[in-house]
Write a structure and sequence with these properties.
This protein has 182 residues and is an alpha+beta fold. It is built from seven helices and six strands, in the order H-H-E-E-E-E-H-H-H-H-E-E-H. Strand 2 and strand 3 form a beta hairpin. Helix 2 runs parallel beside helix 5 and helix 4 runs antiparallel to helix 6.
Amino acid sequence: MIILVFALIISLLLWTYSPESSFLIILSKLVLYLSLIVLLLSHHPSTVAVMPEKIIVKRPIRKPVVIEKKDIIQISVTRNENRSLRWPTRLVFLVTLPIILLRTVERIVRDLQLEAAASASAKLSLFLSQSLTVTYLLVFFYYFELRAPYQQTLKVTTYSNLKLWIYTEKPEELTKLLNFGI
């Protein structure tokens, strides 16, 4: 969330203080898309290796996190709230996406026809700003779909106040491997 706010501020500053047909206007739109790429990569599914004495979380782009068993305060199995919202969310998404996509394409075509004499950078900036809503919607739906299939989550809390949610089919197996009673 901090990344998105930071990207929004940078984009607004670039857009405000750049000349009309400048490359900086396109860059102000691209910054918002770059924040989505960072969001996708940082929330990409991690690989978790559970051993009797430690948990190793291998994350893309970042270094692995090693949690020793002695650092763990609590392990609890909780119900995944996203699972109960899975089908209503999918239904809302499948209804709204075509409507938003159709309106976005219509707006882009209409604006490009009105701006026929505009420069290529202005047309690209227009396209990027109009398609941003659809792109954000797709990314957030993907983010939701990564977590929705699992009925339960394994929540690990450490002494350093690190909270780790592991989405897995069988969380009980992981707690048995760590010899942690729930």
